[in-house]
TrEMBL record:
Lineage: Bacteria, Bacillati, Actinomycetota, Actinomycetes, Micrococcales
Transmembrane segments: 26-48
Protein name: Transcriptional regulator
InterPro entries: LytR/CpsA/Psr_CW_biosynth (IPR050922), LytR_CpsA_psr (IPR004474)
NCBIfam families associated with the record: lytR_cpsA_psr (TIGR00350)
UniProt keyword list: Membrane, Transmembrane, Transmembrane helix
Domain Cell envelope-related transcriptional attenuator: 102-243
Family designation: Belongs to the LytR/CpsA/Psr (LCP) family.
Species assigned in the record: Knoellia sinensis KCTC 19936
Length: 341
């Protein structure tokens, strides 16, 4: 009886010993999968880092740092160097035949120190401003005369701020980025009809080709280049929010396609490295639609330059207010802010 009891009891003792052993094996398997996932994730980000580094070109796009700026009224202001957010100049060129080298998009993106918002300020290409060493001309001419460094100098004097970084791309890049994220939903302030391509007032779903047509059009719009600038801002906002969405950031295939499209043919200044770009993107990951604010650089109306060209006349008082808000990182107080859906 004792032997029978002992034999009957053996499986129970083995089960008692084997339970923890199987638990340890399961933990080891799970740990192995976690380790493999971490290795894969690390490998993925190394891959992305290599892709970005291979695609992006760096050029001397920034002038030497200026301690002060001479404003339109002749006064001099100190240019803050840190602690007031970051200012990114985005320059876009239309690469259609006959348009090569033109700076058709001039947008200053201000990211406050706390990264709670992004202010996108569109500077119409015909804005009539003082260009260092060239007198007064359209702001677009600064780029034609001296490339990005002269455009940066022009804007620093116009606003009294430091331009921290510059990024140059072309319109074809917009098309590729849009397709990479599966299209974008863009709000149009006014409808337009360009034959086979129609835009309705309100929300529109665009693929890459449609988005390209959307940001290029100006002749059928009520305010020409001003209206086109508003469309470009609306598109940039839509693309930014789609890129920072969970569906994009958590999909390795989509993320890889977008990063490849965004960095192909992208040229940045000599001080903007991949680590800085990645850190800024991570800092902005919680942005909502209402946190992206659009502004058109203030002007009082239209006029004619001495050479007969049409120009936009700077509203010097409002431009001074804009510059002060940028210098002090208080853009939320800027009185002329206009927000689009």
């Amino acid at each position: 009886m004792l032997d029978d009891f002992t034999d009957a009891d053996q499986p129970t003792r083995r089960q008692t010993k084997d339970g923890p052993r199987w638990g340890r094996r399961i933990l080891l398997v799970v740990a192995s999968f976690v380790a493999l996932a971490l290795v894969a994730a690390a490998g993925f980000f190394v891959f992305l880092n290599q892709k970005v580094s291979g695609n992006i070109s760096q050029e001397e796009l920034l002038p030497k740092a200026a301690p002060s700026a001479t404003l339109a009224d002749g006064s001099t202001v100190a240019i803050p160097q840190k602690g007031v957010g970051q200012n990114y100049l985005i320059v876009g060129a239309d690469t259609r035949p006959g348009d090569v080298g033109r700076s058709d998009v001039i947008v200053l993106a201000h990211v406050p120190e706390d990264k709670s918002a992004v202010h996108l300020i569109h500077f119409p290409r015909d804005l009539y401003v003082a260009i260092p060493g060239r007198g007064k001309d359209k702001i677009n001419a600064a780029y034609a005369y001296g490339g990005s460094p002269l455009l940066v100098q022009t804007m620093q004097n116009l606003l009294g701020v430091k331009i921290d970084h510059v990024a140059k791309t072309d319109f074809e890049g917009f098309q590729k980025m849009t397709d990479a994220v599966g299209g974008v939903r863009v709000y149009a302030e006014e409808a337009s009809d360009e034959g086979s391509f129609k835009v309705r007032q309100g929300w529109n779903e665009f693929n890459g080709e449609e988005a390209l047509l959307f940001v290029r059009e100006r002749y059928t719009l009520s305010e020409g280049d001003i209206s086109r600038g508003k469309r470009q801002q609306a598109f940039i906002k839509a693309l930014m929010l789609k890129t920072l969405s969970r569906e994009t950031l958590t999909n390795p295939v989509t993320l890889t396609k977008f990063i490849d499209a965004a960095t192909d043919n992208l040229v940045v200044d000599q001080n903007l490295d991949v680590g800085t770009m990645r850190g800024e993107a991570i800092g902005l990951r919680n942005l909502r639609g209402s946190d992206v604010v659009f502004i058109t650089a203030p002007f009082t109306g239209f006029g004619t330059a001495p050479d007969g060209g049409s120009i936009e006349i700077v509203d010097e008082a409002s431009m001074a207010e804009l510059g002060k808000a940028l210098r002090t990182d208080t853009m939320e107080t800027y009185a002329d802010v206009t927000v689009t859906p």
